[in-house]
Amino acid sequence: MAALTSVFLLPLLAAALLLSSPAASTSRWLTQQLHPATTTTTGGGFQVALTHVDSGKNLTKIESLQRGIKRGNYRLQKLNAMVLPTQSAPSEDVAAPVEAGNGEFLMELAIGTPPVSYSAIVDTGSDLIWTQCEPCSISCYSQPTPIFDPSESSTFAKLPCSSDLCSALPQSLCGSDGCNYLYTYGDDSSTEGVMATETFTFGGNQVKVPQLGFGCGEDNQGDGFSQGGGLVGLGRGPLSLVSQLDQPKFSYCLTSINDASSSTLSMGSLAGPAGNSSVTTGLIQNSAQPSFYYVALEGISVGGSSLPIPASAFALQSDGSGGMIIDSGTTITYLEGVAYDEVKKAFVAAIDLSVDDSGSTGLDLCFDLPSGGSGNVEVPSLVFHFQGADLELPAENYMIADSSAGVVCLAMGRSNGMSIFGNVQQQNFLVLYDLGKETLSFTPNQCANS
After folding, report:
1. Catalytic residues
2. Could you write out the DSSP letters of every residue in 75-88?
3. Is the dihedral of CA 35, 41, 44, 45 positive or negative?
4. Is the bond into 444 cis (omega within 30 degrees of 0)?
5. Under CATH, to which class is 27-53+103-245 assigned?
6. What is the per-residue pLDDT across 278-330, written as a single tens digit (0 to 9) for each?
7. Are 212 and 129 within 8 A, CB to CB?
8. What CATH number was assigned to the domain covering residues 4-24+274-445?
9. Where are the domains of the chain?
10. Can you give the pTM of this predicted structure?
């Protein structure tokens, strides 16, 4: 077989088996004096650690993947619905914007003066920054850290309805207490409260960002965010952390799924330039959903052969449908149906194992491992041909093996609309978003050692 590699399967290994493939508006902050953070800071940048939402739950790699797939399937539906919303609600009703919700990584930060620490979900697929706030006039869900009380902070200020950030909300309501917001998420979670500004602290309570706009949620429903006390949006819209910092670059380096080591998010100058080993493609904007990071995928090769996928499979359509986004909050990659079917067919032809039809893993394509869980398994190479960038993935970024389950699975799924490049495929790459140049770069990296 062409472009295959042998994989030695260790007997009785309950975790993942080793696979390999060949070759495989707070711009004022910029003028603030930054104190040294827990990792490293320079003027105009900081780094924070990211923790996977399932970290510390003693899960095998396949179990971690299964939990992520359940979240990702629902997220995929809502991301598609956001691009092509259903018929608008009658004018007399208040139609809250529906966001994708959830996410896969948490960041630690602090809010207020004096600072109160909490964890928040990081999401490249949404914009609003928000946290639960006292007095929780209607409801707050249980969170692992104290709920922020704005009355205890000397730097809290509500935003007026005339503010630019209030105008940037998809749906804003003007009340007696200023600008109000309401967001609902795909899992029926919601947050409602007032828009305000506050001092946020990143990197071990030492990098302070004053007057950051955020939602102070006094009515928060559902359990979709129970791992943390809110959400930090890293999307392209004006409400996101990226936009408010007025920093043109950010990057992250995600460790392997269920790795005990934390991942890293770098903002501003610490995001760094693309290196010599990087591959770089352009970012595309979709007027129907301007917050998402779209990329131009032109084709896919499996085992060294380009697949017969029509160009229309990955094209961004004039009505805003289709295309591919890169998303840190979705676990596996989802491909438009025609493209996924070709990828699946190629893997079935290339891997000399029987297909597991039990459906026990939640993944669409799995193979039965050799008897005893040891031996050599050959897996084909996988290359994503982005515009101007051929990204060859290491095998562990697309094949998940578990001898306790007796299977090796393709970590990809089928979509009936938008395609999504998920975080399993991004692991152990430094992924750099350069919004000044409108580019996205991938640099191979051992993220656990970064």
Report:
1. 123, 327
2. HHHHHHHHHS--SP
3. negative
4. no
5. mainly beta
6. 999 999 999 888 889 999 999 999 999 999 999 999 999 988 899 999 998 88
7. yes
8. 2.40.70.10
9. 4-24+274-445, 27-53+103-245
10. 0.86
